[in-house]
Amino acid sequence: MMMSRRPINPSRRLADGRAASLDASIRSKTRSSPYLTIGLVIVGAFLLIGYFYRDTGTFGSIKGISRVEGDFSCAVEVQKTIPFLKKAYGDSMHKVLHVGPDTCSVVARLLEEEDTQAWGIEPYDIEDAGHFCKKLVHKGIVRVADIKFPLPYRAKSFSLVIVSDALDYLSPRYLNRTLPELARVSSDGLVVFTGYPRHHKAKVADKSRFGGLAKLRSSTWWVRFFVQTSLEENEVAIKKFELAALKKSYVPSCQIFHLRSYH
Asked: Where are the beta strands (DSSP E) in 49-116?
């Protein structure tokens, strides 16, 4: 007795077709997954390289690694004035010490100059500093030191000492100790960058970082204090600096004082 063939259910055929299509799609994705993995690895590598070099200035400006936030930052101003400082001090720019927060960024900029050696002192902790800054500390180019105490250098160790964003946070009691120390370790001059009282406004965030609010003083106050500590203004350097700045129409955002070293 012959058996009759059962009719094929059209819905089942459609379902089987969909299953086959889905299976083919899965196999296709499985075959392409190595390419997807390679692509993700390449993208991840670029992200890691960008993160590593973000502090070196290679893929970002030096200003970008500044740790001083807000309007009050003379460290960036120091970098802008390096060409004028070279005109004012000439050969005295061959061995420079910068003192102040963001010293890593300033030292990095100074090291770009031909025939210039640079060191730095960071008065505050560098826990939030980038890889490049910590590398400078590891090499001994930058030191972390409390500037209210004697500096870890011999007399006249540097031809020029530049300080920014540091003295504004010191009371006169500590300034009486720190300024003579800065002059002691310099041989050809001391350049002081301080904030303008009318241009800068210290923020509450600065208090937690530096232990107190910046005391932004007038130029008259500073000049009087320099006289009290037996520090004389360097008239020759002042004139050369102002002439170089005038040619470039440079208007400073910070007060700049040029002082003679102790002899």
From this structure: 95-99
